[in-house]
Amino acid sequence: MVRIMDKNGDEIQLDGSQRVAMWRYAEAFGPSRVPPAFIVEGPLGSGKTFLAAAMAVSYCRSGVGGLQLLLCPTESTLQVLEHTLESLATCDMRILSLDQQSVFSVFHEGDKENNAALQLHAQLQMRLAQTTTDQQRGTICKQLERVYEASLAVSGRLDIMLATPEQVLEQLIDGDRSIVKWQLQREVTRVVIDHGEQVTEASFNALILAFPRAKFVVLGDSQQLLPPSYTPGDLPSELAAAPALQLLKKRGNLPLIRLFSTHRTTRDKSRHVADVFYGRAPFRAADLEDHDYCENYLSLSSVCPGVTRNLVYGQLQDSTSSEDMSNVELGAMEKDVRRLDEAGHDHQSVMVVAFCKSQRDLAKARLPFDYQVLAVEEAQGREANIVILLTISRSQQEEDSLMCPRRVNIAVSRHRDALLIFGTEGLSSMDPWNRLLPPYFDHVCFSSN
C-alpha cells in the first residue's frame, strides 16, 4: 500500500478500517467479482473526508492512471475536502476544482500557465463589482463564463477533479469540446462521493449512467443531514430524492466499511455525541473509557470561572420577547469571544454556529469579519478548537428546527477542544437536548452585562 504523506513530508498513520478502505479502493474493477461500489460509514469526526482524499492520492501514486472524481453535495463541504487534499503531498499531481474560488481552480494565482486568463478574469471581476446596472452585470457574467470555459479547454490532462455532482453533469451536458469533457467521457475510473447522505438518488443514478465503467465509493453518516429536497414518507420524494447512502445500504450486496475511531476530539469530549445519537454503536468501547475531565487544559475556564468541563451550557436570563432574548444571547457571545481572544484564542481557533440563520446574520454583524459565523448547514464537515453555539429562535419554524436530532448532532460535534452552548431554561427540557445538557455539560448562568 502506498504511504500517505502530508505536505511537510511526514507520514500519516491509518487505522485498520481506513486501511481496509484503501485496499478496496485500489482493487481493479472489471469483469471479475470485484464489487462495482462500496460504502464507508462512520460517525462525526471519524476521518471520512480525510479518507476520501487519501484514497485518491494513493491511487495516483500507484501509477494506474485515469481520472478520479471527488464529489461533495454542496460548496461548503467541497471546500472542506479541498482543504484536506491541500494538506497532503500532492505537488506532483494534476488536480482541478470546478469551484472557481478554490486553490485548485484554473484561476488560482499559482497557475503560471494561465496568467493571461487569470488577469482577464480579475479585470472582469473588478468591473462586475463596480457595475450598477443589471444589463451590464449580465454582459460581464457572460464574459466571465466564456473566459472560464476557455481556461478549462486548455487545462491539460488531470488526475483528480473536485466538484459537486451538478457541476460534473453540467460539464458533460453543456461543456465545450475541451480536454476536461473528453476525459470525463472516456477516462473516469473512480468516483468518490463524500457526504453521501446528502446526495439524492436521482443525482447518484445520473452519475452511474454517466460513468458506467467507474468504481463508486460513497462515504457518509446516516445520522447527519439528509438532502433538503427529501421528505421521508412522501412517495415522489422517496423515489427520486432519497439519500444515496441509504439507497446503497438497502441493497445489502455491497461491502460496508465502518469507521469506529473519532479523530476530531478526545474521547471525553465526544461521549455526549456517542451516547445520545449513536448509542455508542459506531465507537469502539476503548474509545469511550472514562476520563478525568480536569486532565486537559480547560479552554473555557477563561470565560466560565469554576467550570470543570470543556462542555458548558450557558443559560441566559429569561425575557418576555424573543428579540430581547436574541440581544442577550448576542451580547453574551460578543463578551465571551472578547474574553477568549484575551486568553489567546483568536478567530483562527473559534467558530460560532447559529441554529437560526437570522441569528447568524446578527452575530456576523457583531463580530470582526475574520470570525467564522455559520448556520448549522454550513458547519457540516467543518471544525474548530472552540465552538460557540447559539440556539435562540425568532419563529416557531426556527424553534422546531432546534428539535431535529440530525441538526443537533452536527451542531454539538464541531469542536476539538471546547463547546459553549447558549440557550434558554426551556432548552434543557426539549428532546434531544434533555439527553445532552443535564448529564454532560456544566451549567452556568450568563447575562449580557
Description:
Keywords: ATP-binding, Helicase, Hydrolase, Nucleotide-binding. GO terms for molecular function: 5'-3' DNA helicase activity; ATP binding; hydrolase activity. Residues 253-424 form the DNA2/NAM7 helicase-like C-terminal domain. The protein has helices spanning 16-26, 48-61, 75-86, 115-130, 134-153, 165-174, 179-186, 201-210, 235-240, 244-251, 271-277, 322-342, 357-366, 376-379, 396-401, 405-411, 433-440, and strands at residues 37-41, 67-71, 95-97, 160-163, 188-193, 215-220, 256-258, 311-316, 350-354, 372-375, 384-390, 415-423, 442-446. It is built from 17 helices and 13 strands. Mean pLDDT is 83; it is low at 285-297. By secondary structure, the chain is α/β, with parallel strands linked by helices. The termini are far apart.
The number of E-state strands comes to 13
Helical residue percent band: 25-40%
Report mean pLDDT, rounded to a whole number.
Answer: 83
List the helices and strands in order.
HEHEHEHHEHHEHEHHEHEHEHEHEHHEHE
Count of helix runs: 17
- What class do helices, strands and sheet pairing give? alpha/beta
Task: Report the C-alpha radius of gyration, rounded.
Answer: 23 Å
Low-pLDDT sequence parts: 285-297
What about the largest sheet?
7 strands, parallel
- Termini distance? 58 Å
Strand order of the largest sheet: 3-4-2-5-6-1-7
Q: What share of the residues does DSSP label as strand, in percent? A: 15-25%
Q: What is the overall shape?
A: globular
